[in-house]
Amino acid sequence: MLLSSYITSVLIITVFATISSGNIELTVLRGVPSSLRSKYAQLKSFACLDGSLTIPFEYVNDDYCDCRDGSDEPGTSACPNGRFFCENKGYIGTSIPSHLVGDGICDCCDGSDEYETSVVCNNTCFELAQKSRAEQEARRALHEVGVAKKKDIMAKSIAAVSARKVRLLELEQELRTIENELKEKEALKQLAEAPENEAKEKHQKLWDEQRAIQLQKHTELDTDQENEFTVEEVRSILGADSVNFDEFNVTVFEQISNSYKKLPQPSTEAAAHLEDVTEKIDEALKQQEEATTTTSGTKGDYEEVTDHHHDDDSHHRHHHEDVDHHHHDEIITTVATSLDHGKHIHDDTAPEYDDETKKLMEIADHARNEYNEVERKVHDVKRQIEDLRKQADVDVGPHGEYAAFMDHCFDYDEREYTYRVCMFKDAKQISKGGGSDVTIGYWDAWTGPSDNKYLKMKYANGATCWNGPARSLTITFQCGVDHKVIDVREPTRCEYAMLFETPSACDETIATTIVHPNHEEF
Amino acid sequence: MKNILHLVHYIVVLFVLNIPSIENVDRSNFKTCEQSGFCRRQRKYKPDRSSYEIDLNTIKIVKSGHLRCLLLDNTKSHVKFKLDIFTLEHNSLRVKINERNPIRRRYEVKHSLVGEPKLVDMNITNLDGNQIQGSFGKAARFLLHVKPFRLDLFTNDMFVMSVNSKHLFNFEHYRKKTQSNKTTTDNDSEDGMWEETFKTHKDSKPYGPSSIGVDVNFINFENVYGIPEHADAFSLRSTHDGDPYRLYNVDIFEYDLQNPMALYGSVPYMLAHGEHATVGFFWMNAAEGWIDVNHNKNLFSTATKPITDNIEIPEVTTHWMFESGIFDGFFFMGPTPRDIFKQYTTITGAAPLPPLWAIAYHQCRWNYIDEDDVRGVLNGFEQHQIPLDVIWLDIEHTNGKRYFTWDLKKFPNPEKLQNDIAFYRRKLVTISDPHIKKDDAYHIYSEAKARGYFVKTKDGQDYEGSCWPGSSMWLDFFNPDISQWYSQRYLLENYKGSTENLFLWNDMNEPSVFNGPEITFPKDLVHHGGWEDREVHNLYGMLQHMSTFQGLVNRSHGHIRPFLLTRSFFAGSQRTAAVWTGDNSAQWSHLKVTVPMLLSLSVTGFGFIGADVGGFFSNPDPKLLVRWYQAAAYQPFYREHAHIDTTRREPWLFGNDNTRLIRQSIEARYTYLPYWYTLFYKQERQGVPPMLPLWANFPKDKNTFKTEDSFMIGNGLLVYPVADADINQISVYFPGENTIWYDLRTFNPYKGSETVLINVNMESIPAYQLGGVIIPRRLRKRRSSMIALNDPITLIVTLDRYLEAKGELYMDDGYTYDYRRKRQLVHRRFIFKNNELRSKSLDTSSKFVTEAWIERIIVLGYPKNPNKVIINSGDKHATPLHSYQAATHTLVIRRPGPLVTSDWTLTIS
Question: Which cellular components does GO assign to this protein (chain A) (predicted)?
C-alpha cells in the first residue's frame, strides 16, 4: 500500500476533537523554498498545499504527517511524499524528497537535511559550485570546439548536397544521351546481324546438305539401310557384344567426322551481298559519328566482357541425335546420353566459315560490341543515379549534422570482440578469437526522444539469438571533438548499446552560454 | 582430446542453459520410480503379513527414556535388527532400526540435529505377550506390537500414527555378492540390486541392495503436508496413479508444476493436521527417497482404544522408501500446530533471526555486468525513490567462474564498490558455487588438489565433471578439515576484494553436474569416511552452506550475523541459510505455486524463504510482474531475479504506472518490517515460521486445511495474492469462527467463516488484519531498512469482538549478535483491553537503547468517539490528540510520543 495514501486515508476523515494549545514550539520554516514562503505565513492555521485539509499552524514541521501531499512537513521526514528544500547558499537551491531528511546521509551540500542528526555534514556548496563551474566551462569549451567542427561538417554537407544535385542532373542528362545512343547502336547491330545470320544460315544449309550426302555414303555402317544406327549395327561395327562408347567414338565416329572436313565453296552471289552490307554500315556509322560529337564523354572504365558462346556446335549435336534415335536399350541409351552432351567432339572437327561469312561476322561482332559498351554505360549511369538518390534519402539531420558519417565505419575494440558500425548501413560483432562475424543490426532509424531525435540511432533485425530475439544496436551520441566509439555493452542479452562521441552531437547553445564566475543562478 | 572435451562441455553448458523457454523440463533426464531399482523393488513389496517380529526376550531399558530390543525377520533367520526407542522432550519419540551386525556400516545422519536430543523418562507397561506400552511427555503414548512388528502412537488418547500397520516394513540387509546374485538379472523381480544403468550412466552398486521401506499411517487425518521440495499442492496428493513424491537433490531445468518430481532440496518430514490434532513424522535419511501417499478410509481397532465398528475413519497412508542408511524416525505428537513447530525445531534447530536488511528488498540479475552497471541500477533506485537494501552479483562477476575471484576488467575495484554501496547502508551479495574450476593457476583449485580435498570416484581418483567453468571438481565437505578450510576461504584476508559488507549465495549445490547422471553426482562417488554419494547425497548442499555460514561468522569474529542464500537444502539447513525455490518461470502458474511451495517449506522448519520475483526464466508480462511484486512483498525473502537471456527488469522499466505500483509494493514491505522482524525473532525462539498456512492459526477450521491460494504472516495478516491475469474479483475466505478481519485499504470489517467476493484492481492485492491483533509498522519512508532503525512506529490495533487486541514488537541493532551476547534488544508486548493500551517489556534484562518512538496509534473497530486520551509513562503524563471516524469506527491517536523502550499505558475515556 502506498504510504501516503495510507496516512491520508486516515487523515482525510480526520476532524480533531481537541486542539491542544500546549507546548508545541514554533518551528523554523525548515525545508520551505522562498517561492512558497507566503503559503507558510505563521498564522493560526495552515492549509495543506493541495487544499485537502486545514490544520493548526503548530502542526507544520512538528514531525507528524497531517497533509495528504506531505506539505505540512517540509522540514522533517514525517511524510513519505514530502519535499525538503536545501537552500545550498553558494550553490543551487535543490528540492529533495523529505524522506532523505535526518537519515544520516548528507544529501544537501549545505548539510541542512541533517540538522537533527549527529552526522556532521561539511558544507560543500562552495566547492561544488566551483567544481560545477569548472565542469560547465569544460563542457562549454568542448561544445565550442565540437560546434566548430560540426559547422564544418554541416557546410560540407551543404556543399555535398548541392554537388550531389549537380551531379544528379549531369547524370540524368548523360543518361538521356546514351540511351539515345543505345537505340542507334541497337539499330546498327540489327543491321549488321541480319546479313550475318543469312550467311550463317546459308553456311549451315550447305553443311547439312553435305552431311546428308556424306552419311548416305556410309552405307557400310548402316547395314540395314534404314538411315539409322541400331544396336545390332553398332555391335557389328565394334565386333563385340558390349557397346563401349569410347571405342565407338574412336573407331567409328572420328572416321565419319573426318569426312566432313571439306568446306563448302563461297558463291559469287554471297560476295556481292557482302559489299552491299559493308556500304550500308559505313553510311550508318558516319551518321552516328556526327551525332556522338554532341554527347559528353563517359568514363570508360569498363571491364572487357567476353562472349563464350560464339561457337555453334549444333551440327554435331544433330549427328548424335541421329545416332541415338529410337533406341531404348539401356546400354545404347548410355552411349547416346554421353554423345548428346557433345563434350567429346573437338572444335577442330568443326568446319570453317567461308571468308565472306567471316567478314560479315566480324562486322556484326563490332556492332554488337559497340552496342554492349553503350548498354554498360547506361547501366552504370543508372546505378550512379540510384546511389545518389539513396544517399539523398538518408536522414543525416536537418542541417546535415551527421553527413560526415556517410560511408564511414567505426570500430570499438573490446576484450573478445571488435564492434564495427558502418553508419546508415549495418553493425557487426567481429570475434577476435576467429569465430565468424555476427551482424547485430541493419540501419533502421533515428530513435532519440521526440525533442532530440538525433540523440540515438538504431540498427535492428540483426542475427537472431539462440532462444532469443533478433540482435539490435542502439547508438547514443554525445558531444566530442572526434568521431569515436566510447563504449559498447549488452545490458540485455542481444540488445547492444553503443556510446558514441561526435562533434555532430555538440550544442551551440551550450557552446555559447558563458559561465560567469559569479553567476546569478548561484 | 582436450579441445573435444571442452567442446563437449560447451555443448552441455549450452544445453542446460538454453533449452527454449516454452519447453519445460526434459523429464527423461530424471528417473521415475520404475527406473530406480530400489523404488521399483520396494513399491512391489506387498506381503499379506509382515515377516518382522520383536524378540520379546531381548527387550531392555538401556537407560531412562531408551528402550532396546531385537527385531527379527522370520523369513531370514540370519539377519537381526536392533530397534531403539527413545522418548524425547517436547512430546517427541525417536525410533531407530539398524542391522545388528551389518557387513558394511550403515550411514547415520547427524548434521540435521541441532544437538543430541534430550531424553525424558518413559513409563513401560507390558500389556500382554504381544504388546508393550510406553507413556511419555504430555499425554503421549506408544504401543509396540510384537508379532508382527507394528508401532501405534497416541496423543491425548487419540490414535494418530501407526508404523507397519500395512506390513510394508522391508529392510534390505547388506549381503555378499554371490554367483546367484550375479545371475539374478534384468527380468528377475529382484533386479537392479548390483548394477543399474540410467541413460548412459552406469551405477556400479559395489555394495548391493541396502534400501529400507516402511509405511507410516496417519489415522483420522485427511491432509498431510511437507516433504519439500516439490512444485505441487500444499496438501499432498494421492500418488497411486503416478510416481511417488521423490526426495533427491537435483538441478531441474525449468521445472514443471503439479508433479512429484524431485527438486533442489529435500526434507523428509511430513505433518498431518486435522481438527483434533497436528502430528509429524521425520525420517532423518539423506539417501534418495520416494514417498507414496494415499488417502483412505478405514475401520480401526486397537487393544487400548477400540473404535466403534461400522465407523469409517479417514486415514492417510504413506509409504516411505530410502535407498540406504538406517531407519531413524522422529514422531512429533503435537497436538497443536505450535507444538509441532516447537518439536521439530527442537530436533533440527530453528531458523535464526536474520539481519534486518536481509528481510528487506533485494535486487538481483544474472548478471549485473560491471561496476558501472551496478552503480547505474543503484542510481535508478535513488531516482525512482524505491527503497532497496541489497544488490546481487551472479556468476559473471568472477574471473571465469572461479569463485572467490573477480573479473577485474568489469570489477576493477570491488572494495570501493562495496563501500559505495554501504554508503546508503546497503549490502552486496556475491555467488559462490561448490564446483571448482580445474585450473592449476586457480589458487582454490591448486590448493585443494594438492591437499586431496576433492570428492573421489569409486576408484579413488578425483572426480571430474562439468559445470559453469567447464571441467570442475567438487570439494568433499564431509571431511570436517575440508569444511573448515573452505569456511576460511571467506575470511577477508582470503577472499580478496571482499569486505564485511559482502554476503553470500551458494547455488548449484545439489550439486549440479552438467554431465552427471540426473545432472548430479554419480551414486558410486566416494566421500570422506568411505561413504558413497548414494548414502549421503541430500546432505551435500547443506554441508556447503553450513561451511559458508561458519566462514562468515568467523569473518567478524562472531560479531555480525551472516546472510546466506542456498538453493539446495536438507533438514537442518534452516539453521544457517535462507532458501529460495530455484529457477522458476515468468508464468502466472509459477506465481500461484509460490504459495504451496513456500508453505511446504514453512511447516518443515524453513522460515526464511522466497521465490524469484517475476520468474527466473523468460520475460514476465508487466501485469504479472506487478502482481508478483505485490504477492512477494508479503513473503519472507523478497528478491527480484532474472535469467541472463531475459530483458532487463529493473522496477522502472515498465512505464510510470507500473513503476508506481512496484514502488508501492516495495514500500508496503518496508512498512511491515518491524512486524516481520518480530516474527523472525519469534521463530528463533519458538520455531514458528513467519509465513503460515491458515490452519496454523485456525486449527479447527476445516475450510482452511487445503488452502493454498492464501496464507498468513504471523497470526495477524491474511494475504490473497492475485495470480490470474484478468480478474477483477477474488473469492476471499475469512477463517475462524467469531473473528473479524479488517481490510487495510478501506478499513472495512469482515466476519469470519464467510466467503466474500472482493473487488480487485491493480493497486494492491487483498490483505487483512485479524481483529484482536496489534501490528507495529513504520509508515515513514527511507531509502533502506537500516537507515530507518530509529524512525518512529505506528501501531495498528484491530479490535476483536471483545474490544481487545495484543501484539509484540522486537527491535535490536539489526545486524550483530549483541542481542544474544549483550542483551541489546527490545521486546515489547502490547495489550489492548478495557479501553487501555499497555506496553510492557517481555524481556526485563533487555538493554537496547533506541530513539524510536510511538508516533501514531490507529485503532480499528473502536465503537465510539472518546472524550479523552491520556498517556502515562512513568511519572510523565500527556494528552495526545485524537480523531475519530464514526463510519469506519476508526480512532487515530496523534503523536502519543513514548519511546518504544519505555513502559506506558494509554487510557481512552
Answer: glucosidase II complex
